[in-house]
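Hi W., the zinc ion complex you wanted:
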Amino acid sequence: MDCKRIIKLISDYIDKEIEETEREIFEQHIRICKRCEAILESIEKTILLSKLLYKKKKIPKKIEKALYYQIRIRYKK
Ligand SMILES: [Zn+2]
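Structure:
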């Protein structure tokens, strides 16, 4: 699985809407890929903060979109 695929899966992974087999592949990749690991960490932190801020279970779609946009930009560099 390549990094682009991982990025697409991150949101599902965090929302725990990921299939078991995909989760395994995802976690395997995170363990060997420092870049994806760092990205997952920063996303988790940001989402955690937004959840605290908005006191909601799910962060607003707008913020989520902005977040993933930032990640995609970072990946292109
Ligand atoms: Zn990766």
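Residues 3-76 form one domain.

W.
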